[in-house]
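From the methods appendix. Each design record in this collection lists the tokenized structure first, followed by the designed amino acid sequence. Records were kept in a plain field format so they could be parsed without special tools. The example shown here is representative of the layout used throughout.

RECORD:
FOLD TOKENS (208 positions):
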């Protein structure tokens, strides 16, 4: 059984696929934080901006692989266009399996994952986006997109440039210092054109 916080249809708001219609499937649970505010101060990742604790979101609950895939497919509005699903969390690598990927591929899905990169990934994922967090060991060093929330302590972007990714993004940390962080990221990308700027456009547009 898979523990799901929420499943919903939206527009991808950040990174390479910004603007692309997508179904988001958010798994409950993470290996870097419980998701409870009382535990945030002691979490490995203290700046997480998503709700992934529990299963009380839209279409949240416990699913078998077959039922999960049926729910995801039911939310795609256009049978003439290949569907796109983003598995996220929390940390989706704790639960996502090759069985789910195999079932979805039968329905012509493109499967993306947004992961912190600290856990092995199952087979069958078409697009891998890794978002490294400070004070962790990154073991997923190959993929399509590396998206670094910036600035983080001891997380100089240079340390990731040897990783095998097609695209490198800096995303301003959403905090009370967001405006300053955005300027820092903008200037860094201009000075280091290997990196592109990623903005959380879903927050700007006020969509899920």
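DESIGN:
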């Amino acid at each position: 059984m898979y523990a799901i916080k929420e499943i919903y249809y939206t527009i991808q708001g950040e990174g390479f696929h910004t603007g692309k219609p997508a179904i988001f499937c958010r798994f409950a649970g993470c290996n870097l934080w419980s998701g409870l505010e009382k535990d945030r101060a002691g979490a490995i990742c203290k700046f997480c901006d998503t709700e992934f604790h529990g299963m009380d979101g839209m279409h949240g609950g416990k699913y078998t692989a077959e039922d999960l895939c049926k729910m995801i497919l039911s939310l795609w509005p256009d049978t003439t266009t290949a569907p796109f699903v983003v598995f996220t969390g929390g940390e989706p690598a704790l639960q996502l399996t090759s069985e789910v990927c195999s079932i979805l591929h039968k329905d012509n899905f493109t499967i993306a994952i947004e992961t912190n990169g600290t856990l092995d990934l199952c087979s069958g994922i078409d697009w891998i986006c890794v978002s490294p967090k400070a004070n962790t060991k990154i073991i997923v060093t190959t993929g399509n997109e590396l998206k670094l929330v910036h600035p983080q302590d001891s997380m100089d972007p240079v340390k990731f440039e040897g990783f095998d990714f097609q695209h490198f993004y800096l995303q301003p940390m959403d905090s009370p210092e967001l405006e300053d962080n955005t300027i820092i990221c903008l200037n860094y990308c201009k000075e280091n054109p290997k990196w592109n700027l990623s903005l959380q456009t879903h927050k700007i547009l006020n969509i899920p």
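APPENDIX NOTE: The chain has one domain: 2-205.
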